[in-house]
Amino acid sequence: MAKIEGRDAIRAALAKKRVGIAGAGGLGSNCAAALARAGVGSLVIADFDTVSRDNLDRQYFFLDQVGMAKVDALAANLARIDPGIRIETARIRLDADSAVALYSGCDVIVEAFDEAAAKSMLIEAVLSRLPGVPVVAASGLAGWGASDSIYVRRCGDLVVVGDEDREVSPNLPPVAPRVGVVANFQANEALELLLGPMDGDDR
Amino acid sequence: MKILLNGETADLPGDSLSVRAVLAAKGWSFPLIVVRVNGELAARDDWNDTIVSDGDVMEAIHLVSGG
Question: Which domains does chain A have, with CATH numbers?
Answer without folding.
Answer: 7-195 (3.40.50.720)
